[in-house]
Amino acid sequence: MKSLVCAALLLACACAGNSVDPTRGRDARLPDGAPADVGVDGGSAPDAPGVDAPGTDAPGTDAVVRVDTGTTCPAGEAACPGGCASLSSDPDNCGACGRTCVVSHAAATCFAGECGTGACESGWLDCDADPANGCERPDGCLAGVGCDTSCGTTGTFVCTDRCAPTCAPPAESCNHADDDCDGVCDNGGIAGCRVGVHRAAGNGGHFYTTNLGEAGSGGHTVEAANYYYLYAGAQPGTRLFYRCRKSSGLRFYTTSSDCEGQVVEGTLGYIGMDAACGATALYRLYSGASGDHFYTTSAAERDSAVASSGYRYESVAGYVWTAP
Question: Which residue in 315, 318, 261, 250 sits closest to 285, CA to CA?
Answer without folding.
Answer: 315
